[in-house]
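User: two proteins, same treatment. go.

Assistant:
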Amino acid sequence: MGQPLGWGRRYLMVRPDHFRIDYVINPYMSTQDQPDPELTRKQWDALGQAIVDAGGEVEVLDQRPDSPDMVYAMNLGLATVDGRAMLSHMRFAPRRNESLTAAPWFTEHGFDLRRTGSDGVGPHFESGDAFVFGDSLVVGYGPRTEADALKHLATEWGIRVRGLRIAHEGMYHLDLPFCPVDSTHALVYPPAFDAASQAELAGIVPEPIVLTDDEAFAFSGNSVVVGETIIMPACSDRLRAILTGLGLRVVVLDLTEFHKGGGSARCLTNPLDFDLTPATVAGGEVVLPA
């Protein structure tokens, strides 16, 4: 097993008081299949408790009544352990009101807040597309985040950004087909990316744990790692054997109400402690698939 991840001990979650399906912006959503409010809250509570039980911290933000997808807190903004945050600039207009609550929260909690764009101006960036891994900030682009946003991230913060072009409509954010597990391992689903990005992915992750189709579409890649615990919405016997063999404790939770909106454990949790130090490069650098 590699070294434990240098982040993932502190999270922001959004209470699901107004979670519902009002519109369709991904293949999993249907306005005819609404989440059950009581079961939704039980599942959300269980996830928060599992993070605390694993040694993590959880901060909670109230959900806006006009923002049913705000419960997917991973997309509120990219936050770092040294107090920086890049607010998401959502592609779809129904999600943009979330920033009206997220922006003051980040500011009030001491984060130096930046933006790639606002009010429909500037490149779209959604933080569910970004993870620190190895010597880079790895960013998925295509369905939600635009390629120009990678340049903004790199130059604004002076970091190395490695881009992966997402080419599968069912894997519209990087947090679905890519989950860092430790310093060398990550859950990956290569068919989510175009051919050039699949080749690039092989160079980013030294020891990939490749998901099957069934595992990927059970949201296994949308998991949360807290130290030596991985909290998952689904885990096949094959995956469990691999993960426990790496020394990880596997916790499986029922989060199926949130699957109705196209997200699971990782989507519901926003890390507030990404460490960009290993990715620091004077002037910034963007590495795109050849």
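Protein 2:
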Amino acid sequence: MGGFFGTVSRVGCVTDLFYGTDYNSHLGTKRGGLATYSEEQGFIRSIHNLESSYFRSKFESDLDKFQGNAGIGIISDTDAQPIVINSHLGRFAIVTVAKIVNLKELEEELLSKNMHFAELSSGNTNQTELIALLIIQGKTFVEGIENVFKHIKGSCSMLLLTDDGIIAARDRWGRTPVVIGKKEGAYAATSESSSFPNLDYEIEKYLGPGEVVHLRADSMVQLRKPDEGMQICSFLWVYYGFPTSCYEGRNVEEVRFTSGLKMGQKDTSEVDCACGIPDSGVGMALGYAEGKGIPYHRAIAKYTPTWPRSFTPSNQAMRSLVAKMKLIPNRAMLDDKRLLFCDDSIVRGTQLRDNVKVLYDYGAKEVHMRIACPPLIYACPFVGFTASKNALELITRQIIKELEGDENKNLDKYATTGSPEYEKMVSIIAERFGLTSLKFNTLETLIEAIGLPKCQVCTHCFDGSSHF
């Protein structure tokens, strides 16, 4: 997916920029980049590959070369960023959190206008450069950003570093968040508000869909008013978000806890304890334990010093190995227990299969599973939230194909909680992975836990609803 951080200050910004960007590292592992601006040195940029190392270790030795009171940083799961552009709008650096579905079409359109692409990523067009080229077609930065909104299918939030501060723009449907922070003599903009507390920023504003603001050290000026319609990704609260982050005023951990609490209050299963699959299942399991009135135990612990998030390697075999190696079961807490585990989602089911086998091998009497969101039925065309290339990589679609002979048949029925088709699909998943019981959260409970109107939250991956 990716996350960014930018700050403009009356004093040097490099320390805040470095740590603020690092606090977005859970959102991606492919590339990291920083850019600063100073009158003396102009724009300074650095990009590093993060696939075999962490952001901090890659950039610490680079920090001395950065100068200035304004800068932007990115953790990217896609293209190399930031891009630095010289144009009729002036010089600027840009970072994006984006997924452009119609990239090829836009690329051909721009090439036909005699434009060129210089920043190829693995031989392909760099989507941040494409966004920059769409921006410079405008007479102003705002007109250029509106041109991006007009042309792309998918989503795009961005930060632009200029010689006069930072321009922050949120995706026109608000699919990804942009949070503004403020402290004495400085403003910041980030994807994750968890970047703020240790750097002494307070949340000043959540940008609205399509809203554009200009940040200087002592001011924030609105350049474009927010649009009314919003479709913020519900998976931010389910999986992506760091527990201390807030979007639209709703804290990630609070949503996960509330979601688990509501499931626990309704669940009739008899179990000895609740456990969370680290990291994103823990908040839900704590809520479930309270709602059910049972203890919370750590029957599985994550080995945090060296293992990154498991979805990141592009190779499925390596992804499975990482998923296994980072989680260590605790036989003392498993043996002869009826265990209920909470997890964020089931995508392919690869991790679930491996985890359940280990739990039984270590003496578990029963293994129940509760999932924070409804079954994933549809691939996401709006944000890059999984490594899935097509819908058939989803375990649900594989089962639908087995049952119907066509993975696209009767999807609305399989997406409806409690329908015969839904119950059959869930029972097959449970049987396939050796689970004593399996229940998914309902869409209604998830939306209730998030606390926003359903019409403002994107639930496409669960029910196929679409807003372009």
